[in-house]
Structure of 3,4-dihydroxy-2-butanone 4-phosphate synthase:
Amino acid sequence: MTSPCTDIGTAIEQFKQNKMIIVMDHISRENEADLICAAAHMTAEQMAFMIRYSSGYVCAPMTNAIADKLDLPLMNTLKCKAFSDDRHSTAYTITCDYAHGTTTGISARDRALTCNQLANPESKATDFTKPGHIVPLRARDGGVLERDGHTEAALDLCRLAGVPEVAAICELVSERDVGLMMTLDECIEFSKKHGLALITVDDLKAAVAAKQ
């Protein structure tokens, strides 16, 4: 039976060319697919596409080093009356917007610009207002070989493609069943309809392991 997934080398090459990639995780984990794009050259059109086909909750995985430089502390280190760890140990930081040339921060244009500047090595902590409308995530340093989540998958895609180590991701929602996430069958249809590569976290783990 032919695999519905894209060859990992082809997917990485497309990612390098600033195309979005669909990454599916394990059935035993979230069993969800994320749309992932390199943040450095993300366009407003790509952000609008992400918002349209997700719940609109766009996150920006990055290295701990970048998050430290931009002063993006983990949310669970901030003082609050109630606190509970995310069950998948997702490392959410305080949210942010780029402070220059944006309006409210919520538009696709503003959010794309925020992602661009999170990936800009010249950016400083003071270039961002906090809280904002993009949700940075701190990836584990060991990537998918340490934690097989979409956060780490996004960063390993950046590394394999040789682009700045900040991405934009969102979880795809079902177009058939309102209120549910997109299933694997839907992801296959979606990837064909929009000409997007479809890979799994396991594909990435194998590619990363082969590089070591």
User: Anything to note?
Assistant: The longest helix spans residues 150-161. DSSP finds seven helices and seven strands in the chain. The helical segments are 8-16, 44-52, 64-69, 108-118, 150-161, 184-194, 201-211. The chain has a mean pLDDT of 93.
